[in-house]
């Protein structure tokens, strides 16, 4: 009986650290936090500097930095600073910025790889979430890893399910990001 | 006695989340999952577009994008989409693609930094593993971090021990990747 | 009583895996390991090859690889191999190298994104720590994620609080890095 408090703290810690809420039958794992965001990427094409939120900064030998390289953009590397909104309207008040890079990595189809952060700066959300992973663009939904977080998202881990919400030529696309955290420390 | 189920679920959760199997004496930690893969990188050199699986997309001021830059390739940044096989034969049926980037980061020796995903697409394996870390190429084995995963590798973490299985000039190399996961959620 | 050992091992595992030391009242979480390092970045500017520890390898259309691009360096991507010291003296004996890349990602202020490793190679420290995250340079302290580690830092996770300790024009800066690990497996 004397060690009952230890059991409680062990269980408390588990919930604190892992945020796991397995169902009583089966092992279905539910997120400890879920959120949906949109981010909006406007690529510099030589004529739209003021509006552009991203630019090509690396390209293969056959490419350049104002037009995608051909062969499904293979090798084009882009740095971005995109507004994040809570709905799919580019002109909604942003809750933060999606900042990072992506590059196209397949010659025979559209596919990318992403490394970026959500940097929140609104009254409701402070801190960052960090992401990395493969983005096979033409697949309807694709999962990347939430590899860490700071502030409100201190030490978070999870999965972000990405879908392309709009795509307009080479210049504009909008991604819907369904963030599911499975490790919540806050 | 009434809280016995809690103890069980605490222990169950620990094994579920951490996949830890410490030996009874000492604290040796064994992986919850181990796998070995090979991946094959054929660098674009200006003449081999059809076969190439990677290309230089960034280079320092003294470099270009069809030849390595000199000074141990310092600053050359490469995007790749390499076949993954279960043995060391480039022509074995691939189980997926290794997609990502690496760059050379030392002037006085060969050393690189890796950010990439294994994107599995065979019947036995679905999902991705995400990796990041330093790769001091001339060291026989070097460890990078498994920073997350999706699908069959949902929320995985671990270590990947990399060794250079073959190296042919500037155009072809093959890496052996020993993946050891220590956090298994599936 | 028969399952007492289970309780102990559950608690033991928790401490082993999470390194959590919550205070008895409240839920303040303290690191399982803390360290402070400095690293020193000397950017190649066309004239300082011998001393330079970093170089621009990607730039937007309006930039080049020997001068920052304007518009707060937006799009400039830099590869680095910087000495790590225990104090703020560039000439102190290094305990390892900070190797990775950063890029500037805002047009209207100075802001960067970092992906790098600390590669330790002194007698006291062996192994690596891997980092990723947003670095809003003008903020006094900013947090990035420790996304993994190897060797002495096997499977580590945590937060690194970065502050700019010195900044001299476009060529030299020094970062102070306060590493706080919250998951310690060693």
Describe the structure.
The structure is a homotrimer of 186-residue chains. Helix content of chain A is 8%, strand content 47%. With 186 residues, chain A is mainly beta. Chain A has one domain (28-183): AOC barrel-like (Beta Barrel), CATH 2.40.480.10. Chain A has an eight-stranded antiparallel barrel with strand order 1-3-4-5-6-7-8-9. Chains in contact: A-B, A-C, B-C. The A-B interface holds A 4, 7, 10-11, 14, 18, 20, 22, 27, 29, 57-61, 74-77, 103-107, 111, 113, 115, 132-134, 136, 143-147, 157-159, 182-183 and B 3, 6-7, 9-10, 13-14, 16-17, 44, 46, 55-58, 64-66, 77, 79-81, 97, 99-101, 115-117, 119, 127-128, 130, 132, 147-151, 154-155, 185.
Could you give the topology of this structure?
3 copies of one chain form a homotrimer.
Chain A: H1 4-18, E1 33-42, E2 54-58, E3 77-85, E4 96-104, E5 112-121, E6 126-135, E7 142-151, E8 157-168, E9 172-183
Antiparallel strand pairs in A: 1-3, 1-9, 2-3, 3-4, 4-5, 5-6, 6-7, 7-8, 8-9
């Amino acid at each position: 009986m004397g060690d009952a408090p230890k059991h409680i703290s062990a269980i408390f810690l588990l919930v604190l650290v892992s945020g796991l809420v397995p169902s009583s039958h089966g092992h279905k794992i539910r997120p400890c936090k879920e959120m949906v965001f949109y981010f909006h990427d406007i690529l510099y094409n030589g004529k739209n500097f003021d509006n552009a939120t991203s630019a090509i900064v690396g390209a293969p030998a056959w490419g350049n930095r104002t037009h995608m390289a051909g062969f499904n953009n293979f090798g084009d590397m882009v740095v971005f600073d995109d507004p994040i909104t809570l709905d799919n309207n580019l002109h909604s008040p942003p809750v933060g910025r999606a900042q990072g890079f992506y590059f196209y990595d397949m010659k025979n189809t559209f596919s990318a790889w992403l490394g970026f952060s959500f940097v929140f700066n609104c009254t409701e959300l402070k801190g960052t979430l960090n992401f990395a992973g493969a983005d096979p663009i033409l697949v309807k939904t694709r999962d990347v890893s939430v590899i860490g977080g700071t502030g409100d998202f201190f030490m978070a881990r999870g999965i972000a399910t990405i879908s392309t919400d709009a795509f307009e030529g080479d210049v504009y696309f909008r991604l819907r990001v369904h963030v599911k955290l499975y490790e919540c420390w806050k």
